[in-house]
Amino acid sequence: MNHFTKIVLTGLVAIGMSSPVLASSYECDSGPKAEWKTKDEAKAMLVADGYEVRKSKIKGGCYEFYTKKNGKKFEVFVNPATLEIAKIKED
To answer: Is the dihedral of CA 30, 36, 42, 43 positive or negative?
Structure first.
């Protein structure tokens, strides 16, 4: 294996190992699902705060909302047990 090939392979391995870090997920300490508030309650809270909710899903124990506010796009992670915003990531 020549020197160039080793460098390229090392770079590809480094990129592959860093991909999970670059993922846009977040973990919530949300407890048992039986104690969660509904996704509609979380959505209503965001709408009342001025967010336009475009899409939602459950990921990492959080409600993850794809939203828009003041012309900017955001991913908003809401703890389903407390309905507190855990993280906001601007897209």
So the answer is: positive
Which pLDDT tens digit goes with each residue over 2-25?
Answer: 644 444 344 444 444 443 444 456
Could you tell me if 45 and 77 are in contact, meaning their C-beta atoms sit under 8 angstroms apart?
A: no
Q: What is the CATH number of the domain that holds 34?
A: 3.10.450
- Say if 13 falls within a structural domain: no
CA dist 36 and 13 (Å) reads 39
Q: What is the per-residue pLDDT across 43-55, written as a single tens digit (0 to 9) for each?
A: 999 999 999 999 9
This prediction's pTM: 0.71
**Is there a contact between 86 and 77 (Cβ–Cβ < 8 Å)?**
yes
Range of the domain at 35: 25-90
